Amino acid sequence: MLLADKWTDYQLIDASDGQKLERWGDYYLVRPDPQAIWSYKTEKNLWSKAHACYHRSKAGGGAWEYRQKLPESWQIKYNSLTFNVKPMGFKHTGIFPEQASNWDFLIDKITSAGRHIKVLNLFAYTGGATVACAYAGASVVHVDASKGMVSWAKENAASSGLADAPIRYIVDDCVKFAQREIRRGNKYDVIIMDPPTYGRGPKGELWRFEDELFPLVSECVSLLSDKPLLFIVNSYTTGISHTVVSNVLSYLIQYKFGGKLVSDELGLPMSSSLLTLPCGYTTRWFSE
Fold first, then answer.
1. What one-character DSSP code corresponds to residue 203?
2. DSSP assignment, residue 17?
């Protein structure tokens, strides 16, 4: 398991009964997590002190219950990176803290490449990987179908002192953008994608992970430079093993370029116990 264990402003404190207790800077949140199937709370007193708790609805979706005053947004830091946290619909905060393991990996590989690196970040959300890559000195094309998420990514870049970094923000369907980039003849040294299990593009384009991942990666191979550095696929799709994604990258990328593949769960250690909470998985291909 790849652990995101270097946080100071974020802390997974406890998890039990399908929920997790987290500290985001100075604020405590309780959010649903289906992986926490056990029933044992180590820090019982802290659970009751949470500023807000997200409750799922049996009819679908859910809502936040605010128990104490909470700002509309606030900032947390991860080393030299700064992110804006905002409790939003469907339990999210705009940051997936387990992805810090990937941010460290990206920064290390890009800074040690010894050349300028061009990055394509697809399904880029609020730009955690974009900010990490820009911090490492790469130029980045950030693509997401949501205008709001792209605006949030710009905020995160600015908060991290990267407002003037070479980042190009694109609001578009990721598949269609990749296809246009192929026709334009553009090339990238690093491609990152965090595709949803199910979704629709800005014009209603349908995406299903199990149907669309292989065709998309197949097309993205044409976007890789002659000396590609990294190809990373993140997923939170249940029912699809990370080995399946590793097989896709092995067949389409490793056979062509050589290099190495690492595929594993991402995890967050719990400060109240020796337990680790699994949080999706990542598959990394990288050149040797």
1. T
2. T
Which tokens is 190 given?
Answer: 């690093």
**Which is it for the CA torsion 76, 82, 88, 92, positive or negative?**
negative
Q: How many CA atoms lie within 13 A of 142 on its CB side?
A: 28
3-class secondary-structure state, position 224: strand
Reported as a pLDDT band with limits 50, 70 and 90, residue 202 is: low
Residue 255 CB partners (closer than 8 Å, separation 6+): none
**Hey, what are 146's tokens?**
């949501």
How many CB atoms are located within 10 Å of the residue 271 CB? 13
The string of pLDDT tens digits covering residues 50-104 is 999 999 887 778 899 999 999 999 999 999 999 999 999 889 999 999 999 999 9
Residues 162 and 82 sit within 8 Å (Cβ to Cβ): no
Helix count (H) and strand count (E) of the chain? 8, 17
In sequence order, the 6+-apart residues with CB closer than 8 A to the CB of 158 are none
In order, the DSSP letters of 78-112 are ETTEEEEE---STT--S--GGGHHHHHHHHHHHHT
Give the predicted TM-score (pTM) of the model. 0.94
Q: Are 180 and 143 in contact (CB under 8 A)?
A: no
Separation of alpha carbons 285 and 273, rounded Å: 33
Element (H, E) at 24: strand 19-24
Measured distance CA(207)–CA(210) in Å, rounded? 9
Does 197 have pLDDT greater than 90?
no
Residue 231 belongs to what H/E stretch? strand 230-235
> What distances in angstroms separate CA 77 from CA 2, 11, 167, 201, one per listed residue?
20, 12, 20, 31
Contact 135, 104 (CB under 8 A): no
End-to-end CA distance of the chain: 21
Report angle CA 267, 30, 56 to the nearest 5 degrees. Answer: 100
